[in-house]
Amino acid sequence: PFGPNDERGIFKTIDGGKTWKKTLFVNNETGGRDIEVDPENPDILYAAMYRGFRKGWDIISGGPASEGGIYKSTDGGETWKKISAGLPGKLIGKIDIDIARSNPKVLYAMVEAPGQEGGLFRSNDAGESWTLVNASQRLRARPFYFHYVTVNPKNENEVWVNELGLHKSTDGGKTFTPMDTPHGDNHGMWFNPDNPNVILQVNDGGANVSLNGGNSWSSILNQPTA
Questions:
Q1: CA neighbor of 93 nearest in space, from 129, 69, 117, 70
Q2: 3-state secondary structure the chain
Q3: Residue 132: CB atoms within 10 Å
Q4: Does this model's pTM top 0.90?
Q5: Mean pLDDT (whole number) for 211-221
Q6: How far apart are the C-alpha atoms of 69 and 63, rounded to whole Å?
């Protein structure tokens, strides 16, 4: 994370992790930030590529949109094409992607970009094009540290964003409602795919469970969290 190196990129294994080959390499400053697999077709993958460094005196988060951004594969990650339609065109930073299990043609991405160019993007055509649906700064706090998006596995229009707080949308990301969690600095969540009312959510205070769709949570005072 501290300097350029040729080991950045997306790697694939076909022998259970014994050996790997690099199938997507942008340059020695751009690495793989996130990768998602279509739940109905494992040959379709999406990768978020990101120029990021952590210095003792600075944080470098993002770079030219011609390099970083979203890439798609339709052959199991052997080859990749860059997606640019609807995404920021000059500078692009950290990206988190999630696929709607109930309709894998619908994807969401939290995209770091300057000003009103960044925010929550949605694709309705399996990632071929994107539309910015919400540029609220409240969803984009400290993107190098947060920027997490998760879709309810049974409802393509219920989307959640984790950042300093936790935010829930039921209209495809157009509007959000703040949701309480036991601690601030929220870093992600997992839905039970068979019963999405069961949620695991993690934050700087620990891990907590909801059995009622996020309306209330278990304690974080039952675990040693450093």
A1: 69
A2: CCCCCCCCCEEECCCCCCCCEEEECCECCEEEEEEEECCCCCCCEEEEEEEEEECCCCEEECEECCCCEEEEECCCCCCCEEECCCCCCCEECCEEEEECCCCCCCEEEEECCCHHHCEEEEECCCCCCCEEEECCHHHCCCCCCCCEEEECCCCCCCEEEECCCEEEECCCCCCCEEECCCCCCEEEEEECCCCCCCEEEEECCEEEEECCCCCCCCCCCCCCCC
A3: 19
A4: yes
A5: 97
A6: 9
Encoding tokens for residue 190?
Answer: 């997992």
Residue at token pair 């690495």: 31
**Strands 45-54 and 69-73, sheet pairing:** antiparallel
| pLDDT tens digit sequence for 71-122 | 999 999 999 999 999 999 999 999 999 999 999 999 999 999 999 999 999 9
For tokens 């925010």, the residue is 119
The amino acid at residue 20 is W
